[in-house]
Amino acid sequence: MAEQSVPFALKRVYEPAxxxxxxxxxxxxxxxxxxxxxxxxxxxxxxxxxxxxxxxKWFHHDESNWDEFRHRYLAELDRNAAVAQLRELAxxxxxxxxxxxxxxxxNHAVVLREFLQSEGKP
Length: 122
Fold this sequence. Notes:
By secondary structure, the protein is an alpha/beta fold.
């Protein structure tokens, strides 16, 4: 089976919007500090695809918990109905997943994009 290219990009919500972003979807459960809705330039705020409050609090952006956080969040995503909404959007073009975390390598949006781009998922 040929690998399907899914048009998902990642971007901090604090970075300026651009035409290349396509659909801009905030995937954080909490609204980013100090950001107005006008400056965010969102098409959608999909809170339900973010990690559960318990998982988010447990991880607390502690890089030493990264592997276990990734494992737990992938399990949550496997049961998350909001994933289908993101895949549907991607069927219409590029989707930029927006997040507020400072760490660009160790945040839930990285795991979410990995999950969305994996084969064999609903």
